[in-house]
């Protein structure tokens, strides 16, 4: 049975894995630097006023970021990347257990996406929810169709 949509979902999951890997690598790279000094140097080079409201917000965010443990962020990013790569590989090769895994993990995001719409109803939040619902519905269809094919083959 051909399910070409699984390959598209596999590519999306692979891209998510690559993005998580890039996050882990970038956090590791900037963990060695003084981010506050780097931000001030960039503002000086670009002639940005440090009294600007958004610049103050950025500097406050950098302060909070430097207080976090980078090892935790790196570890979670690497685990998420591995998770996404396994799902991408399994969907690409049509492994049944990864179809279930992808269906369940995609379904888990739906309540959070609904909450995001409740908090901030905008086009982006609606689009993310609709896209995820389409992916989960397609995976459900694939799983049900595969069950019917297995039942027919068993008879």
UniProtKB/TrEMBL annotation:
Pfam family, one: DUF2127
Keyword Transmembrane applies: yes
The entry's keywords: Membrane, Transmembrane, Transmembrane helix
Top-rank lineage group of the source organism: Bacteria
Residue intervals passing through the bilayer: 71-92, 99-118, 124-143
Protein name per its UniProtKB record: Uncharacterized membrane protein (DUF2068 family)
UniProt organism field: Marinomonas rhizomae
């Amino acid at each position: 049975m051909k399910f070409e949509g699984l390959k598209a979902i596999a590519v999306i999951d692979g891209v998510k894995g690559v993005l998580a890997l890039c996050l882990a690598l970038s956090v590791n790279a900037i963990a060695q630097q003084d981010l506050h000094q780097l931000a001030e140097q960039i503002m000086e080079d670009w002639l940005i006023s440090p009294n600007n409201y958004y610049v103050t917000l950025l500097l406050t965010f950098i302060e909070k970021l430097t207080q976090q443990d980078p090892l935790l962020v790196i570890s979670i990013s690497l685990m998420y990347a591995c998770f996404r790569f396994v799902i991408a590989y399994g969907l690409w090769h049509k492994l049944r257990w990864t179809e279930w895994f992808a269906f369940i993990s995609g379904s888990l995001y739906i309540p959070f996406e609904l909450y995001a719409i409740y908090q901030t109803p905008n086009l982006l939040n609606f689009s993310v929810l609709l896209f995820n619902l389409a992916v989960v519905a397609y995976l459900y269809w694939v799983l049900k169709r595969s069950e019917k094919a297995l039942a027919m083959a068993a008879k």
